[in-house]
Amino acid sequence: GAVVSQHPSWVICKSGTSVKIECRSLDFQATTMFWYRQFPKQSLMLMATSNEGSKATYEQGVEKDKFLINHASLTLSTLTVTSAHPEDSSFYICSASTPTGGYTFGSGTRLTVV
Amino acid sequence: QQPVQSPQAVILREGEDAVINCSSSKALYSVHWYRQKHGEAPVFLMILLKGGEQKGHEKISASFNEKKQQSSLYLTASQLSYSGTYFCGLAGGGGTSYGKLTFGQGTILTVHP
Description:
heterodimer, A: mainly beta, seven-stranded mixed β-sheet, 11 strands, B: mainly beta, six-stranded mixed β-sheet, five-stranded antiparallel β-sheet, 0% helix
């Protein structure tokens, strides 16, 4: 139980275009989801907290206009990287707290901007 | 503030034991441990709540010392499948920190046959 489905798994896009990443909680309701970014051989850095029906809360230094987060339902949160640039290339992962108290992660999206 | 993990990397032979430590300068509400394989998302191992509890699952266990603001992950009789990067995630208390996990820098564990 407590599965989060994330897609796409990987995406290559051209500089200047936008990319949308989806995370769905399959068997539970996730009122809050968290979006992380991970660069190679580094830790996961929290980007923002996504709350169903309200605005996301961004961590310091994360551009809210560049990383648009929408949490329109209890099972779906999306992250849109707008006007992507090569420096946005990274591994993006969502997570949600589970009914049992832990956190479950999506499978991650590897974004490459060329 | 990011918790500090030690060691940064450890190499074992199958059957050997390892301890990974995680310490914080801030008061802790709970500690989460995850293992991440290369190119994959982290996988939840266990959560420890304040109160000095110790948890275990087969040959992997963990302790949480609230006073010392640190947690340790114990891997006994390591198996090849234990290889990966281990992260501790620390959850703050209430307010704006609620639910947020701050991850340590990771400990790379490699188990050889």
